Amino acid sequence: MPSSTSKPVVNVNRLLASLPRSEYLRVVSDCEPVELALAAVLGTPGESVSHVLFPVESFISLIAPISGHAGLEVGLIGNEGMFGISVLLGVDASPLHAIVQGAGPALRMETGRFRRELDGNPALHGILLRYIHVMLGQLAQNAACTHFHGVDVRLARWLLMTADRAHGNAFHLTHEFLAFMLGVRRAGVTKAAFSLQARKLISYHRGDITILDRVGLEAVSCGCYAADKTMYARTMG
C-alpha cells in the first residue's frame, strides 16, 4: 500500500489540472499526497477499492487475470488519468490487478470522500466521465493491437507509452513487467528488445531502458500509439 509522505508535489495530475482553478484547489485539498512504491499492489480483482489515486509522477499498470497465464497488461495510468474509475460507476470492487510500474508521488482520496466530492462538483464529474470514455477506447484499441500486431511493434508502442508517463526517456522495466505488457514469454521479450536495440532505437540492459531514437521508435510502433494520443487529446482537450 502507498505510504503517506510530506514530499511536495512537483508536478500535477492533468485530469485535476483541467478543472477550474477554484475546483482544482478544493479537490487537491481533499487529497492526501502519497509516494507509490515500485511493484506495490494497489488492487486485485474482486477486492474493495478503498481509495482513488491521481498519479503525479508515478504510473500504474492494469493487468487482466487470465487462467493458466501470468496475465496481460491492458492499461497504463500516469498523470493523465486516475485509478479507481469503478468507484465512479458505483462499483466498489476492482476488476483488474493494479501494480505500480513507476514509483513516485500521487494524490489519494478515500472513496467515500470521493463520492461526496463528485455529488457536489459537476465539473469533476464531467471530466471523469470523459476520461472513462477514453479508457474504454484505449482498452478496445489494446485488444485489437494485441490480436493483430507483432511483438516488436507492440513493444515499441508500450515503451513510448511508458516514457510519456515516466516523463523521460530512461526508466526501469523488469522482464516480468515487459511480459505482462506484451502477453508473451520472457524469451519473446528478450528477442523483441534485442531487435529494437539492434536498430539503435533503445538501449536495454538488465531492465534499464533508454530510448535512443524516439522518432525512429515511433516509426516502428504500430498506429495504436498515435490513435491513443489522438483520442485523449480530442476527448479531454
What's the short version?
The chain is an alpha+beta fold and 237 residues long. Helices cover 46% and strands 22% of the residues. The chain starts with a strand and ends with a helix.
CATH superfamily of the largest domain: Jelly Rolls
Could you describe the largest sheet, including whether it forms a barrel? 4 strands, antiparallel
Structural class: alpha+beta
* DSSP strand tally: 11
Q: Approximately how much helix is present in the residues?
A: 40-55%
Number of domains: 2
Q: What order do the SSEs take from the amino end to the carboxyl end, as H and E?
A: EHHEEEEEHEEHHHEHHEEHH
Going across the major beta sheet, what is the strand order?
Answer: 1-2-8-4
> What is the averaged pLDDT score?
90
Q: Ends: how far apart?
A: 32 Å
Oligomeric state: single chain
- CATH classification, class level of the largest domain: Mainly Beta
